[in-house]
What does this fold into?
Amino acid sequence: MKASVSERTQMPALRRRLHGRVVSLPCLEWFAARPRAHREEVLPPVLTARVSVEAGVALGWREPVGPRGRIVSLDHYGASADQQRLYAEFGLTTEAVAAAARESLAGTG
It folds into this structure.
C-alpha cells in the first residue's frame, strides 16, 4: 500500500527527468541488523535526498532518511474509513510525496 503511493509518485518524476527509486523497508530493525555494506548498497550515503512514506508513525524513520530527508506519515490513530479516503484526508498522497521529494532535493523545509 505505502509502496504503491511511492511508485505512483516516481512515474511523473521520471517524466521530468528526475531519477529515483523505490526501496521497501518493511522492518527497520531487520534493515539495521544487516551488514553496513548492504545498508549502504540499498541507501548509498552519497544520495541524501530521501523520502519515507509510512502509513503509521514517523518514529524510526529519521535515521534512514537522514537530515535532508523528508518523512510523509500518519502520526495519529482513530480514523476509520477505506484506505483511499484516509490517505487523501490525512495527506498520504502522491502529491505529498512528490512535494517532499522536491523539498529534499532542494535541501529546504
